[in-house]
Each structure stands twice: as structure tokens, then as C-alpha cells.
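Entry type: protein chain
Record version: 2
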Amino acid sequence: MRYDEQNGFTSRVGRLFFEGTGADVMSYRVEFEFARLYVEDLWLGISHLPYLGNIRIGHIKEPFSLEQIGSRKYYTFMERSVAEFIHTPPRRVGIMAFDTAASERVTWAAGLFSDAPGINFVQDDDFGGAFTARVTWLPWYDEATQGRGLLHTGIAYSYREPFGSSLRFRARPESFLASYAVDTGKIPADSTDLLGTEVALVYGPFSAQSEYILGIVDAKGAPNASLQGTYVLLSYFLTGESRNYLKSQAVFGQIKPLENFLRVRTEEGSVQRGKGAWELRYRYSYLDAWDSGKLSAGRIGNHGVGVNWYLNPFTRVMAEYIYSKISRPETSSDGHLHIFQMRTQIEF
């Protein structure tokens, strides 16, 4: 089977945010997404609390998955892996406590959340709810190089009672312009359990990252169903940079080139050049949403390769090719997609 997708162009993300602190213990953030006319972040935080450390209340990210918790601005690939669609969208209205320990080698976060989408509570007895928690540990962190060598490990869990007594899992083939390739439709369910494991290695310009996510659905009037996903990501900086790890949050952050891209002629007539940072990348990702007689959405496996050019810490150009294979064992139908996509990203 061949999946036909149209060529296209879109503004993927356009955001304006305000954030600040006050009285040494208060913080806030408001972020509006113009591309989708949507409020991304809307929260108030309090820090330095006894026992709890910090709390945050509002429309916030749940503490689940290394890839999801990190900012979209700093993804290695243009989109999250298909495995991450087992837990999506990542933001909900809720309250979360979080802190660090052992010189920020350990982080933890736990919270209670609504399962209803968006920032508005629905006037319905069945708006759902969730408990989500994440713990990370750095067995190795090279303090001398400020994290150019490290090993990150983590585990996350989420128990969810779905909004509207039903849930749905669906995933695009890692392209925002593509249609959903895997879709379970609405599944009547009492609850779902999600378990995620994560590991990442940084060794100078090389890095590797992987996660595995398992979902178990307690379906109404039917046997439990399961789905699972994973990805493996490899990255190498040709220009010697290293992925930037934020210890206090246990996520990867902004890439800062060793030299910015520039071409300037000096008063003496010579030309000074800077090439920016160049990153090669590969990712294999897999989502299995087929469970004989229980789930029939199918399976999708992607191979992606690409290059990132960081002109400076605030500007980058991304280009990637993805080969996506989609299968539905119940109907013995397979298909594939070839995707080439580019993005220019500017932060100011």
C-alpha cells in the first residue's frame, strides 16, 4: 500500500512568552502559541518550600519522558519520535512538586493533573485525572568539562483516568505536515497505566539517547490492551560542540556554537569567518499499537537522518529525510512514506 501525502509549507511554531520572578520565591510563565492559537504555558511557581522543594500550578508539562519535557526549541529532530504519542499532549492543568538532590545528580517530580485538554475545565463529571511522576539519576557527570561527559538514566510512571471515559492514541510519521498514520480511534476505558524508561549518554561531540514507553489500557467490557514504543537517537557534532545538559531539570537545552556563523571584512581588508555548529543525526523509532483482538491501529517504524546547522545560539536550519514503514497485521496491508523536510528556526 502506498500512502500519498501532499507537499506543503507551514509555520510550525510561533510563540510569545513572558516569565519572571519575585520575592525570591515566586516565579511565573505565560506562553502563547500563535500558530495554533493556543496557550502553552500558564503557571505560577513557589520555590524553597520545606520537604517539597518547589511547586508549580497551572497549565504545565507533566513530568514524563526526557524528549517531551525538554523544550521543542532544542529537539535534535524536527518532531518528537512516534513513541512519544503514547503520552500526548504533554501539558495539562495540574499541580506539581519537584526538586533535586545529591548536587543535582538526582531529580524528582510528581503531580496531579486533569486529563481534559486545554486550560478550561469541562463541566462534566467525567473530566478525568492523572497522577504522573518521574525520577532521574546521573551515575556519571564530568564536572571538569561541565557535562561534556555524562550518563543520564530515568524512569517515569503515569496513572490516568481518561477525559470523557475514552482515550485515543494516534501518531503522525514524525512530520507535522503528514496525516496520522496510526490511529486507534476512541477506546472506551476506565484507566490507563504508562511506564517510561530513559537513558542518554554524552561523550564529547557524540551523544546517544533512547526511551521505551509501555501503555496498558483497562478497557471497558473488554480485555486489557497494551501498546509500546521506543526510539534510539544518535548525534555527532562535526565542529566539536556537545549537547547541553541542564542538571536541575534533567533535560537537554540550548546548543551554543564554539563560533557563530559570520563573514566580516576587517579594516585591514582581511575576511574573518565563523562556520557555526554542524550536527549529524540519526534516529530509529517504533510504535506498536496493534494487540490481537484488542487494538488494531497498526505499527509504524521510522528511520530518520539529518543535519542541523546552528548559525548562533538563536538560529538554526534543519534538514532531514525519514523513511516510514506502516503495517496493519489485521488486514495484512503495509505501506511506506518517504519524507524530506526542512525548517528554519529563529529565537529572539
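Comment: DSSP finds one helix and 22 strands in the chain.
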